[in-house]
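ENTRY TYPE: paired fold submission
RECORD: A
CONTENT: sequence, then structure tokens
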Amino acid sequence: MSNETMKPVVESMPRIGDKAPSFKAVTTQGDINFPDQYQGSWVILFSHPADFTPVCTSEFMTFASLEPQFNEINCKLVGLSIDGLYSHIAWLRSLKEKIEYKGMKNIEVKFPLIEDITMEVAKKYGMIQPGESMTKAVRAVFVIDPKGFIRTVIYYPASLGRNFDEIYRVVVALQTADAFKVATPADWRPGDDVIVPPAGSCGVAKDRMEGKEDIKCYDWYFCTKKLDKETIMKEIKKTAK
């Protein structure tokens, strides 16, 4: 056997700005045609290593409890693991009937959970990381915009549960950037100042530095302005279906 044939197959990982790889699959909520059927909505596609595991249990209960909050900002949830459909159904029933965690009880997971026993979808999205496991998907998070483009990718190892406040913040920040043509600084939360694009001319830069616009400049390349939370959320929620 040649050295070439002995090399492990390395699956490519979609990058920020790429069109989300398309697929059809069976889920706990029926068949899915992704991402075509989600055109017009933001989507969080996320994977977990396995059903009937404790970290994944805590995550799914949290995601399910936050689903109405995500829906309010026009964002849908889609889960995936390489377990089969009947395993998914049994596990989700267990969450609802047996698990009480951090005040969450009788939690029903209503968003689709993809069956991926062939690992076809997991491989398309680079969710199989050989250094972590050859047979389980890592905790991947893909934020996909209404036009089907990948806008954020976050990976966690199997031992680390996700920060759901951060995932929600990411979606709101991306929507804010798109709607108001701004950027968001470190640790930004809705209501904090946003960053405006650098001045396009010396005259604009001078006006900003002299305070002639409603913009605060620390230097010509770093300027911020106020954008209140109510304005942001009103604009974002207008798109919710």
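RECORD: B
CONTENT: sequence, then structure tokens
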Amino acid sequence: MQTFEVTSVNISEKKGTIKKPVNKVQLTEIGIPGDAHSGAWHRQVSMLAEESIHKFSKEANREIKYGEFAENISTKGMELFKTAPMDRFLSEDEQIELMVTQIGKKCHGDNCSIFREVGNCVMPKEGIFVQVIKGGDLNAGIRFRYEPRVLKIKIITLSDRASQGIYEDLSGPSIEKKTEVFLKEKHRHFQFDKVVIPDDPQKLKNNINQASKENFDIIFTTGGTGISPRDFTPDVVKPMLDKEITGIMELIRVKYGMKKPNALISRSVAGTIGKTLIYTLPGSKKAVHEYLTEILPTVEHSLYMLHEMDFHG
């Protein structure tokens, strides 16, 4: 379990100015009342780790004081930028809970005093922003534990022969490997649950319903997206959707169909069931790679929307 300690709390009344350390701040549903960045939005409170500050101090060739990067909360003990939106920080007494909403920000360039001094700034790369989930008084010395948001991912392979052990399932593991690489680059925590089932519509429906009931974040199916008599996956999934996400599969069919017309025959669908994303992929390793190349970059934002998290602005 990772933990960190608050080393300073800092505020400023005007945007674009250095924040000054204070003895204590109050965290509320709008952030820190009286601070220039408080409000009903996703960047209520900024945080920066001493680990990041020290690296930049060497580059600037001088000591950087708390608040100079306009962070509200300075910490030590953990590299905060290696978290991800939807992760949470919980104080040891469990009175304060913060949710990560953004990693880094756009650099203000000449409007930033640090940037004017050394031509660089650490906040755009390693500063983070949080929303206050549960508020309270905060001061230096309070410790927090890191509680990552673990994404639950279900992979369902449809194949009579693979389910009978006649041949090895290749597309399911391919989904797992490519998704794992992508999520690790995003500093995401995740867990997979894989199952291989025969080409049976009722078994597919049962597995999807169970995964949704168990609050899986993402379901990938592989196989059964063509037009043969045994290809039924889209026909089972589409009526189960609360909302269909048409653009992803339309893009994939057009993009890859321009070079390989057979790709246009795929009937793959994507959408949501409750707060679960579901994507039906073809059964080949090559197709899995192509589809995930387009799908994975949309997953995080889709999850934010499903959970009604407004990370715009």
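NOTES ON RECORD B: The chain has a mean pLDDT of 92. The chain has two domains: 3-147, 150-306.
STATUS: closed
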